[in-house]
Design a protein that fits this description.
alpha/beta; UDP-galactose 4-epimerase, domain 1; 2 domains; 6-stranded parallel sheet; 14 strands; about 45% helix; globular; binds 2-amino-3-ketobutyric acid
Length: about 325
């Protein structure tokens, strides 16, 4: 039976992944951790929670020993736009956090899943149908830490036999917890604003394509790859995965099918636009499909219907 520690469990992915993995493995077998405690009490009542700063390797090791952890899902990281605002802190948390997790995993014989990102690519990467194995020369601090993280994870697998696995996530869209400080966040905010105000000013400009994925597919990707037969994995860190690729106008057209008055305008943020311009338009995820059966369920239409339905209830829109 897996005994899982999730770092960054109060973030956008962690909040939902904690509940999802507790369904799969049992509440007591999934230990949520975060640097600070915040949010709904119900989260903390649903299963074990520990305060954890990933910069403190002793704290990580202590929690792993306390609960006999055999799998870490390391999510704690600073996202792309926040990382450009404070590259030094982003380097510290993203690099040293990952290094500490890997060292504890090596010492205690623990498997590690940690997500990489489309940010691991840069302007010199082929932007369309970006291959699994290709040029990775990102120009952002977040991207630099993601490529280095992929390489470190592969190193720990080859050198020490640590069972490391990861995916390169695109923008993740969800209605439960908001993302914090990412470049793809516009594709989440647009739904909230469409329902609340029937208009949205996008910080990403028209015509900018990026890969995206609805949260249920992202959760399944993490679970399926963690459970995948290791003999079938030719790659490990990290697999391209995607569910859809769109630009803001396409998303707005889909939303207009439900909210015809919705208006999309632009208030472009040069920092996030430059990041988006350096990322691929669309990924080739055939290696993930072949090696562990990756297959997303949600496209833009299905996701939009579900997001609007769920947010209508959450925001109490009449
Ligand atoms: C971000 O925009 O920084 C993240 C990502 C694609 O890794 N959502």
């Amino acid at each position: 039976m897996k005994k899982i520690l999730i770092t960054g469990a109060l973030g956008q992915i962690g909040t939902e992944l904690t509940a999802y993995l507790r369904e799969k493995y049992g509440s007591g077998n999934v230990i949520a951790s975060n640097r600070r405690k915040r949010g709904d009490e119900s989260f903390f009542e649903a299963g074990p929670f520990e305060l954890l700063n990933v910069l403190d390797a002793k704290e990580i090791a202590g929690i792993c020993k306390k609960y006999s952890i055999n799998q870490i899902v390391h999510l704690a990281a600073i996202l792309s736009a926040n990382a450009e605002n404070d590259p030094q802190t982003a380097y510290d948390i993203n690099m040293n956090g990952t290094y500490n997790v890997l060292e504890v995993a090596r010492e205690l014989g623990i498997a590690v899943f940690t997500p990489s990102s489309i940010a691991a690519f840069g302007a010199s990467t082929p932007p369309d149908n970006t291959p699994q194995d290709t040029i990775q020369r990102p120009s952002t601090m977040y991207g630099v830490t993601k490529v280095a993280g992929e390489l470190l994870c592969d190193y720990y697998f080859k050198r020490y036999g640590v069972d490391t696995r990861g995916v390169r996530f695109p923008g993740i869209i969800s209605y439960v917890a908001l993302p914090g400080g990412g470049t793809t966040d516009y594709a989440v905010h647009i739904y909230y604003e469409a329902l609340k105000n029937k208009k949205y000013a996008s910080f990403i400009k028209a015509g900018t394509y990026m890969d995206m994925m609805y949260m249920p597919d992202a959760l399944k990707a993490i679970y399926d790859l963690m459970e995948a037969n290791p003999d079938k994995l030719k790659h490990r860190n990290a697999f391209n995965v995607t569910a859809m690729s769109f630009e803001p106008e396409m998303l707005a057209s889909e939303i207009k099918k439900y909210i015809p008055e919705f208006q999309l305008t632009y208030d472009v943020d040069p920092v996030r636009q430059a990041i988006a311009d350096s990322w691929p338009n669309s990924l080739d995820d055939s290696a993930a499909r072949k090696e562990w059966g990756w297959k997303p369920k949600y496209d833009m239409a299905l996701m939009t219907k579900d997001m609007l339905d769920k947010l209508t209830v959450k925001l109490n829109i009449k």
